[in-house]
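The data layer described in this paper is built around a simple, fixed record for each protein. Such a record has a labelled line for the sequence and another for the backbone structure tokens. For reference, a complete record is included directly beneath this paragraph.
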Amino acid sequence: MSRATLFRLVPALGLTQIISWGALYYSIAVLGASIRDELGLSAAALFGAYSLSLLLSALTAPLAGRAIDRYGGRLVMSVGSPSRMRTPRLRSTPRGHLPASRWR
């Protein structure tokens, strides 16, 4: 890979990482109060569920790493990215259609 390509690729990768983490990881801090109000959850229940999701991510990370080693990062990321982008849609689903609305 040429040096000029790297000078374009690295900033692009950095920008996509910033946007991805901002949209998927830190949005709970901004949307938490609205989510709690809409679903009628306590702060402990909401952030406990979010912490559980982080724990599940940590437990499945070795599987993802093995998949990347076996099939390559391009395929694994191509499959994983669309599934992660459904998360904001699930957060915006009307109350009666989201299983979390039963957590009261």
